[in-house]
Amino acid sequence: MRSIPLSQIKSQIEELCDLADNTQDKQYLLTAIGTSNGGYSVNEIANMFPSYIPNNVWLPQSFAHQHLPSNTMNVMFTGNRIQSFDSDAERENAYSHLGKLIQRAIKRSIEWGYNAIHFISGMALGIDTAACEYVLAQKSKGHPIKIFLTAAVPCLNQDVSKSAPKR
Fold first, then answer.
1. Are 125 and 134 spatial neighbours (Cβ–Cβ below 8 Å)?
2. Given Cys at both, which of 85, 93, 128, 167 links 159, Cβ 3.0 to 4.6 Å?
3. Do residues 26 and 73 share a domain?
4. 120 lies in which domain range?
């Protein structure tokens, strides 16, 4: 059984994109709307999104892959957890180096003619989450390339074992 017609979902998606485009000071984090109890497949819903999706609309991973430009460089992060560093200075040095690597990846993707760069993070506390913070900061700097970020959470309820400040 399907919840509402696809035409109505498409209309609501277009309204959301218009709203997001006119309210750049807000962020819109979407779930995989219509794909569970709604009765539609990921492809049916993902294909409803327009070719232009405002930068402040965050699609779920299952939808995002449908909208990556074909000429996209992919960069994945994995690294040490916060607890693995022997000192704050060692951690800060690693984070500083990480920021430079992200900037270099963006620069190279532009030099090599890519239309977009897609960063993927496993979201572990430490290098993975620091990388996300750097990528999010770069999205607002006006680079001549589209920058995408996907949180590839390895398992459901990954955050359940974490205390509230670490989620």
1. no
2. 167
3. no
4. 69-167
Residues 43 and 76 in one domain: no
The number of domains in the chain is 2
Checking 101-104 for CB contacts under 8 A at 24+ apart, the result is 102/75, 102/131, 102/134, 102/135, 102/138, 103/138
Helix, strand or coil, per DSSP, at residue 144: coil
pTM: 0.59
**Beta-carbon neighbour count of residue 165 at 10 Å?**
5
The dihedral sign for the CA sequence 27, 28, 31, 37: positive
| One domain for residues 60 and 74 | no
pLDDT one-digit tens code per residue, 35-87: 888 888 888 888 888 877 887 888 887 787 676 667 888 888 877 676 677 78
β-pairing verdict for 57-58 and 116-121: unpaired
* Domain C-terminal end among 67, 82, 114: 67
DSSP assignment of 70-138: SSEEEEEE---BGGG-SSHHHHHHHHHHHHHHHHHHHHHHHHTT-SEEEEEE---TBHHHHHHHHHHHH
Residue 77 vs residue 136, higher pLDDT: 136
Say which amino acid occupies 26: K
Adjacent-strand bridge partners of 126: 81
pLDDT confidence of residue 120: 87
